[in-house]
Amino acid sequence: MGNRGRALAIALGVLVSASVILAADQTWTGKISDSTCGHSHKSAIEHAGKKLTDADCTRACVKGGGKYVFVTGNKVYNIENQDYAGLDANAGASVKLTGQPTGDTIRISSLQGAGKAKS
């Protein structure tokens, strides 16, 4: 293998290593919300004047076509696996979420919170 081949092999190894590191699970603390409300629930405005809990508002918005999202700090992440067990049980609740981020989207691998822990 020539110098050019070795350099290519090293570069490829670095890229593969970087992608493995970037794809590693990360853990955050935050809240399960919905794509309609994001950071704050305005249930009285959104649901015909009804005063709903954050959990009921999140469930109603998802039932109405919204998607579950994860809110941590000032950041709202889309959740890739919308069918993940535990999302409904933890709707509107504070959770500890572990998953793989890709841009503004997270694929959940573990969720712990108000409902039963799921993996």
What can you tell me about this protein's structure?
The structure is a single chain. With about 120 residues, the chain is of the alpha+beta class. It has three helices and five strands, in the order αβααββββ. The chain has helices at about 5-20, 45, 55-65, and strands at about 25-35, 70, 75-80, 95-100, 105-115. It has a five-stranded mixed barrel. A hairpin with a 2-residue loop joins strand 4 (about 95-100) and strand 5. The mean pLDDT is about 85.
Brief digest:
The protein is an alpha+beta fold and 119 residues long. Helices cover 29% and strands 31% of the residues.
Helix content: 25-40%
Largest sheet: 5 strands, mixed, barrel
Helix-strand sequence:
HEHHEEEE
Assembly type of the shown chains? single chain
Determine the mean pLDDT: 83
Tell me the distance between the termini. Answer: 45 Å
Low-confidence blocks of residues = none
Q: Give me the secondary-structure category.
A: alpha+beta
What topology, given as strand order, has the largest sheet?
1-2-3-5-4
DSSP strand content:
25-35%
Total number of strands: 5
Radius of gyration: 19 Å
Shape: elongated
Number of helices: 3
What distinguishing features does this structure have?
119 residues; alpha+beta; 5-stranded mixed β-barrel; 3 helices; 5 strands
Give the helices and strands, then pairings:
Layout: H1 3-22, E1 26-34, H2 43-46, H3 54-63, E2 68-72, E3 75-79, E4 94-102, E5 105-113
Parallel strand pairs: 3-5
Antiparallel strand pairs: 1-2, 1-4, 2-3, 4-5
